[in-house]
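Example record

One chain of 73 residues, shown exactly as stored in the release files.
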Amino acid sequence: MYNRKNALILGAGSTAVLLAQSAAAELPAGVGTAMTAISTDALAMVDLAWPVVSAVAVAFVLFKIFKRVVAKV
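Predicted C-alpha cells for this chain:
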C-alpha cells in the first residue's frame, strides 16, 4: 500500500540521511590536538586524586570500626 503518509516518512528519512552525510566534515587538526590535551590533563588529575579518595574511604571505615568497638566497651 502506497499512501501519502508513507511517502512523507520515506522522503524525510532520505533527506535526513543526505544531510547527515554532507554534515560529516573533517574537523581541523587543532581540535583533535586540543581534545587530546584535555584528555591527558583529565587523566593526570584523576591519577592525582585516587590516593586522596582511597585515604578518605579507609578513614571512614576505620572510624566506623572504632565506633563499634567503643560502643561495646
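Notes: The chain has a mean pLDDT of 84.
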